[in-house]
What we know:
The protein is an alpha+beta fold. The chain is built from two helices and nine strands, in the order αβββββββββα.
Amino acid sequence: MRRILATVAIAGAITLSGATAAAALEYPAAPARGGVDTGTVSPGGAATFTGSGMTPGESVTITVTCNGSDYSSIESATVVADAQGNFTYRAVLNVPGVCTLKAVGAGSGATATAQVSVSGAARTVASSQGPASTGQGLANTGQGLANTGLDGSMILWGATGIGALTLGTVAVAASRRRAKDITT
């Protein structure tokens, strides 16, 4: 009987040890990052602002703020993050000075920034900015990483495993007892 109890205890410990990995804490998402394809453009020139770390499929608001020597300008647009959480935006910059491009995820609040220097005399060309890529369809509509923690189904499967081990132990004990009774 002691061997049976020891076997059940070991089997139960092995069955429940899998729950510790499943109960791990959620990892934070990687921070959003942004960059531009060029650090300096002439007035009227374009810079491509790309970034990562947004939630796949979410709307990303792009704000372009240029602080020139004579005046400032602020423009904004919206693009959609692709299936990997990446975005792309092509900005035409007309104001000499430093332009800051800022992306903010609508659902996640993730923020990415980059700067471009615009050097030279200002042009009077109208700014026509638009997204270079609006992304593809929704790959994941959830927020952040998948939850890998302990849930109700894990407890149910653990209880099912313990029940199966208990029934198996009882069956083995009963068959040994019958075999012992037959031989005596």
